[in-house]
Specification:
single chain, 206 residues
Length: 206
């Protein structure tokens, strides 16, 4: 029985690793084939941020997917996907700090005050930081029930990532609106079962 369960989980983990590594492969290919465009820094910032948001949404999709498929593998790779999302958010932030600000805290403070999309992105990164730090099983045992409450910060962090993208683009907002819409749909998938579960209780009460 264990070997039968191991194979699907191994495939799910391999898929999660492939998704997490894919942006690096794509960026390496672009770098070696002169595909970074006229503004390489903007290309790197955009792509790392975009893939962070995509992986974050995939991570959020694991709980509804588990509910619909009745399989536990989706939940078991959720932590790995969350760590990959945080990794790419951090790379995105590091590129901005390095090439746009040259690690000037003064410039960062000015941007946080003047540019709304920078503020939103920075807050999203801060919300994900404690989730990455406490992602181990040891922290899960220490925090117990509070661990689950803490890791719900992924919901506003993902939304802020989408709104950050929306505020960043200047004309065509269809893509950021698509990601915000996916976030909203994933949130509704979490709410509906609870609402449905509440109905039988009221019925029996009558």
């Amino acid at each position: 029985m264990q070997s039968g369960l191991l194979k699907p989980l191994t495939a799910w983990r391999a898929a999660a690793w492939a998704l997490g590594l894919y942006p690096a492969v794509m960026l390496a290919w672009a770098f070696t084939n002169a595909g970074l465009g006229a503004n390489p820094v903007e290309f790197l910032e955009h792509n790392t941020g975009l893939w962070a948001l995509r992986i974050l949404l995939v991570c959020l999709a694991m709980t509804p997917l588990r509910r619909f498929t009745k399989r536990s593998e989706a939940i078991q790779v959720r932590r790995l996907l969350g760590l990959w999302a945080y990794f790419w958010v951090t790379v995105h932030f590091a590129i901005y700090l390095t090439f746009d600000l040259e690690w000037s805290l003064r410039e960062l403070g000015a941007d946080l005050i003047k540019r709304t999309y920078i503020t939103l992105g920075f807050v999203a990164w801060l919300l994900l930081l404690p989730l990455a730090v406490t992602s181990t099983r040891g922290w899960q045992r220490r925090l117990k029930r509070r661990w689950g409450q803490l890791h719900k910060l992924i919901y506003p962090a993902a939304l802020l990532g989408g709104v950050h993208f929306f505020w960043l683009v200047k004309s065509d907002v269809r893509e950021p609106l698509l990601y915000i819409g996916i976030w909203a749909a994933l949130m509704l998938l979490r709410i509906k079962p609870r609402a449905a579960a509440a109905k039988p209780k009221s019925a029996t009460g009558l």
